[in-house]
Amino acid sequence: MATLKGDLRRCLENLPTGLLSHHEVILRIALAVTRHISNPSDAERAVESLLAGVAHRPNQPEEIRNAVKGAYYRHDHPELKSNPIKITPVDQGLKNNNIGQAGLFEEFQVRTNLVPIDSADALSKLFEPDESIFVQKQVAEKGVLLPVTDWIAQPDLSQYQFITYNTFPAQATNRSESQVLGRKYLIHETDDPDLSFEQQLGLIKKLENEAELKMIVSSGGKSLHAWYKWTPGNKKAFLELSQSLGGDPRFKLMNQLCRLPWGTRQKEGNLTAEQPIIFWKD
Length: 282
What we know:
Elements: H1 4-13, H2 22-33, H3 40-51, H4 63-76, H5 92-98, H6 104-111, H7 119-126, E1 132-136, E2 144-147, H8 148-152, E3 162-164, E4 185-188, H9 197-207, E5 213-218, E6 224-229, H10 235-244, E7 257-259, E8 263-266, E9 272-275, E10 277-280
Antiparallel strand pairs: 1-2, 1-3, 3-7, 4-6, 5-6, 5-10, 8-9
């Protein structure tokens, strides 16, 4: 009979080191813990205990709680299909050779065009007025799908946190990848807590060999979200290079959420942080 200790050992031993985002690690641990702990509060504490002392970005509000809830739901619905993402291993030598050096932030400041003044201004320049996107305040909540013209008119738009970087038909019923109209942008982001903004900019610059950089958004924490223009034929090479440099493999999915430019990040303890655009190209 499987035990909690045994399942956790197998879970941790089988984690592909350096290849998963912090969120993916939480999800995998939560699946193992909830097989043996029926009380949600106890399961949350167990996950938190396992993550203690491990270097990672700060947890999102409710991130562990939502992961535990999702794990219980998956155990109760074994018919649900998984959606594994093919991951390109991190090339540590390539990554180290392209980490940004001192002065790179200033270089990007010189290169940037005039940055959009707020979220509405950014959306108006990233998308066509009649294109529809999901925007939401929390990862776990159900996003709202509206045409860009309607989002621009929302007075509280800057209080939202996440956005889809690709578009959906106006009648889409959910944010599943099967409903995405098609790829519009490519995104690179890393959860590596040891990389400064300037070091991340070196990796972002390297990816300009594969696609044209459109925008860089600060997450309001420790990471940068770099948006690149998608063109037919540039996806495969871009995604492979992004993952080789430690990029989040979830951005292979077209329905993945990313940070809303000039949105508001919700932190632990009801703290907030702005998500500014630090680079823009017309």
